[in-house]
Specification:
This protein is an alpha+beta fold. The two termini are 28 Å apart. It has three helices and nine strands, in the order E-E-E-H-E-E-H-H-E-E-E-E. It has one domain: Jelly Rolls (Sandwich), CATH 2.60.120. The chain has a six-stranded antiparallel β-sheet.
Length: 168
């Protein structure tokens, strides 16, 4: 289950006269809108999880054209866009990242939260904490085989919050 936690909305207009080349008597204002809200994803086990549908199901009507930014509000999980057709991609990504940042390294000092914590921070740094996706015709404009993934790097990470910002 996904929960919408907070919603805010900004609409602003800038007179075209600020930008003389864009000046028009038909469209005297350049208007833009920013919507922002948080959603809480359910807890996932450690791994790479396709969450495209969970996110899309909780979006408001998207503009005809714009951008969406999805930001994960955690330091031990990440977001990525990758192939969504073959589930072995998820397996292989997870195994590769486990190899790059293994647990129980003797040089790790940040270990009070468990052996999976510091490797989770390294993996989150490698995958990233936000995605920006174009919006076209009121839909996320991703490639045919692309999906949005939550990369859960902790053994018991719990639910994760995403901050969604829509620009139009």
């Amino acid at each position: 289950m996904v929960f919408i936690l907070r919603w805010s909305f900004i609409q602003s207009c800038i007179q075209y006269s600020i930008y003389p080349p864009l000046h028009s008597s038909i469209f005297p204002y350049l208007c833009y809108m920013i919507q922002q809200f948080e959603i809480r994803l359910p807890a996932f086990k450690r791994g790479i999880h396709l969450v495209t549908q969970l996110i899309e199901d909780n979006l408001p009507s998207l503009p005809e054209m714009g951008m969406i930014n999805i930001f994960i509000m955690h330091t031990s999980a990440g977001l990525t866009i990758n192939e969504n057709a073959d589930p072995t991609v998820r397996h292989d990504l997870e195994k590769y990242l486990d190899n790059v940042a293994p647990e129980n390294e003797s040089y790790f000092r940040h270990t009070m939260e468990g052996v999976d914590d510091m490797p989770a921070h390294i993996k989150a740094t490698l995958t990233g904490s936000s995605l920006t996706i174009p919006v076209s015709n009121g839909r996320l404009n991703m490639g045919t085989w692309q999906g949005i993934y939550l990369c859960e790097f902790r053994n018991y990470g719990g639910s994760r919050k995403l901050l969604i910002t829509i620009y139009s």
